[in-house]
Request: fold
Amino acid sequence: MTIYNLGSINADNVYRVSHLVGPGETLAATDLTQGLGGKGANMSVAAARAAARVVHIGAVGPDGRWAVERLLEYGVDTRHIGEVQVPTGHANICVDTNGENAIVVFSGANHAISEAMIGAALSEASAGDFFVTQNETNGQAKAVKMAKRLGLRVTYAAAPFDATAVSAVLDDLDLLVLNEVEADQLAKETGSNLDDLPVSDIVVTLGAKGCRWVPKGSAPQGFPAVKVDAIDTTGAGDTFTGYLIAGLDRGMPMPQAIDLATRAAALMVTRMGTADVIPDLKELEDQRLG
Ligand code: RIB
Reply:
């Protein structure tokens, strides 16, 4: 089947710093790397590296043609990425010596995606395909409705977290992926426990503690993380989600898809950067053997 991803495309500037900068502070970075990013693009690349067929729906400005070419090189179908007269989105990412990050995002073209662009892409979809989106583009709520109506399996990665944005799509979701803090915020916002939400499957990522799967109507199940020395956690959550849906799309049961996604995210945190360093299936296999 195919994964349709309405997602952001950013130019990532990744600065290595001694510590995350405080208010009023000026800090010299010790290193700079630039590459492809955006939570959407990262998920598309992760799913493609997990051998899924991925169609990315998004937008760049004239300065972002390189990003579209790079997605194509990574095996993503880019026919539904439009060029608009707005600068391409970018992110300035600081990573400290513990691998923690702080990110400032400029949305740019990611907020100039027309309903017609989304409709054109989804008109090619078939029932049973996956649809995934995150909170870095415009058009999420309408796209989710459209995808649901067409019979796609609708996934929402609630990042960056905004309770109103999640609430707007909640009724049409099949799968929701979010972290522990976000899960608490959502529970507060909706006044419901996670297992009372109208979503068949919820996966709560817990960082170094692994993740929890909350299937509707059954007991939650915990999954451990793989122990690694993290040097950069940026994009690890996106890698997890991309691999998770790629696994489910291939027909894996949830526990097996979670195992695959957990191993991919673990390898990802040992690398500096975002989309350009997401591991492929062979690297995961080599790591298991090594
Ligand atoms: O999740 C990491 C991503 O967040 C980065 O690639 C950056 O572009 C921001 O969107």
Q: What stands out?
A: The radius of gyration is 18 Å.
